[in-house]
Amino acid sequence: MSVPVSYLAVVLIWSTTPLTIAWSSESVDPVVAAGLRMAIAALLGLGLLAVLREPLPLNRRAQKTYACAAIGVFGAMCCAYLSSRYVPSGLISIMFGLAPILSAVLGQWLLDEARFRAYRWVACFLAFAGLGVIFTDDVALGPESLPGLLLLLLAVTLFSLSAVLVKRCNGQLNPLAHTVGSLLWSLPGFVLVGLFTGTDSLSIEVGSRSFWSILYLATFGSLLGFVCYFHVLRHLPPSTVALVTLITPVFALMLGHLLNDEPLTAGLWQGCLLVVTGLGLFFWGHRLQPERSPVS
Fold first, then answer.
1. What is the pLDDT of residues 177-223, one digit of tens each?
2. Burial of 128 (0-12, 13-18, 19+ CB in 10 A)
3. 226, 231, 237, 240: CA torsion to nearest 10
4. DSSP code at position 206
5. Residues with Cβ within 8 Å of residue 287, at least 6 apart in sequence
6. What contacts 67, CB < 8 A, 6 or more positions away?
7. N or C: which end of the chain has fewer CB within 10 A?
């Protein structure tokens, strides 16, 4: 699969993921829904590896790569699922708009990437100002939303850290094997969190919206989505990969409003616009600077 096609697939899948996360947790505990999603995706992935006769590397370097990826698969997704009962699904996508900036910041520390220029600091200010506008929107968010907001901040931090660490590992793994290994590494985390939070119910009504959402997220959100994600991450810088969050918030907000009756307030739109503007400036602000003419 080509990098552009994989990139487009990630955009489309991530646009629908926040809404289906909310749906999958309607009648199922969020941790159980997330764990089932990853377990089903891992089983499907193992089956595909067997059919394609593609090995699952288990050497030390591969295991390190899986572990780094699991920080995002388990850590970020667990937090995002738990937050879905406190905040609108569209906000999940907006909050993940911080990923490119956080990836770039972490990349400076862990990958020796270039230091920020002035326009990038302005971009950071705009993006965080957008989140501030959203946080003060009393219609979309209330006092009960605070746990969800904190969980989302943790989720996007873990997601960004995972992307940078995977890039630093440079495991050069097959994307499908990379995905399956990462999913398998994430499963013990979901089990432990479920036990710690007292989650003991695995009942799910077959045919319910939660049931179909879990299946969709397992096949597309986890398996296909992560295969495409790791494929583009292997060929592009982590901050560029995270640029998909420039596009997905708008689609996620519209889907949440149209299909889940979530409030679509002026504050959400204004905050989303500031975040997207900040991201655009962050990545393309250098084009606004006039080129210096050569000294004769």
1. 988 999 999 999 999 988 887 665 666 777 788 899 999 999 998 88
2. middle
3. -60
4. T
5. none
6. 185
7. C
